[in-house]
Amino acid sequence: MKSKILDEIKKYDTIIIHRHVRPDPDAYGSQGGLAEIIKTSFPEKTVYTVGKEEESLNFMRRLDSIPDEAYKGALVIVCDTANQERVCDQRYTMGDKLIKIDHHPNEDPYGDIMWVETDASSVSEMIYEFYLEGKDAGLKMSDEAARLIYGGIVGDTGRFLFPSTTEKTFEIAGELIRYNFSRTDLYDKMYELKPNVVKLNGYVLQNFEVLANGAASVTISRELQEQYGLKASDASLLVGVLGNVQGIKAWVFFIEEEDQIRVCLRSKGPVINGLAKKYKGGGHPLAAGASIHSWEEKKDVIKDLEEICL
Ligand code: AMP
To answer: Which residues line ligand 1 (CB under 6 A)?
Structure first.
């Protein structure tokens, strides 16, 4: 599959790379890392990275604003996005050919070519493997690509903590740190939190609800976000914080947005992506998400989570 993707990249003059809505470091890392590899390897090609910018990730990469015409005859690659409705910038179908590169369960197979590896820690890790496979056929790595890919891997593995981290992940990380970028600078930016988010973290730690069977929940209403002067996207940065609370097996954050309530699920064992799927979401076995549209539904999600933890 990797060599097939390289063949397509070689064929096209314009390559447009997308990723998912509400991006995280792996979305930026895989999208930007792939773009930098292509640009370094084939300087004559035009490569765009698109999508709505997430301010807190501007340090990773700034994105391009492109007209619809740019898609004419272009190759479009979507990174780290399991379902089509979660592709950020829905013009992704306007190109000549579409490639999906992802590590989530392939619930929504789309694209002319699909490369999906659910065992990969991150799509950034896959992008580095793509480089390794293609380096004899002309692919080149750059310091900037290495920085982005490394950041993506660190982000999606929770700093090499989650069980998705494999021997291969460490080998790749070991290769990446030989490139010229500052890890300290990257970590500082990735893990820097606004003072208000840290205060909300305090609220979360004081107010999480312990449910039956080792489940837990946190509710972050719009009112609370206003009180702390924060956006829903800021609140979602805290979803991992219950991971080291003794006795908690799986937990859910309900984060109220303008028109929906985001359901962010995390687990240290019980598989929770089936639950996310039940509420029309998805994700990984131990990190998944969905949306609900009323507080009534919150009770159902909690009941389901308690059952899964049994
Ligand atoms: P989040 O809780 O938003 O950080 O998401 C955790 C994981 O679940 C990520 O891998 C997301 O791609 C996935 N995910 C979150 N929300 C959805 C959704 N509505 N549909 C499908 N996958 C989702």
So the answer is: 20, 22, 82-83, 86, 104, 239, 264, 281-284, 287-291
pLDDT at residue 37, as a whole number: 98
Range of the domain at 155: 1-190
DSSP string, the chain: -HHHHHHHHHH-SEEEEE-BSS--HHHHHHHHHHHHHHHHH-TTSEEEE-S---GGGTTT-PPPP--GGGGTT-EEEEES-SSGGGBSSGGGGGSSEEEEEE-S--SS--SSEEEE-TTSS-HHHHHHHHHHHHGGGT----HHHHHHHHHHHHHHTTTTTSTT--HHHHHHHHHHTTSS--HHHHHHHHH---HHHHHHHHHHHHHPEE-GGGEEEEEE-HHHHHHHT--HHHHGGGGGGGGGSTT--EEEEEEE-SS-EEEEEEESSS--HHHHHHTT-EE-SSEEEEEESSHHHHHHHHHHHHHHH-
For the question of whether the overall pTM of this predicted structure is more than 0.85, the answer is yes
Q: Which atom of ligand 1 is nearest to the CA of 80?
A: 12
Ligand 1: atom nearest CA of 264 is 2
User: Which of 161, 190, 219 delimits the end of a domain?
Assistant: 190
Instruction: Indicate if 10 and 148 belong to the same structural domain.
Output: yes
CATH number of the domain enclosing 80: 3.90.1640.10
29 Cα–ligand 1 center, Å: 17
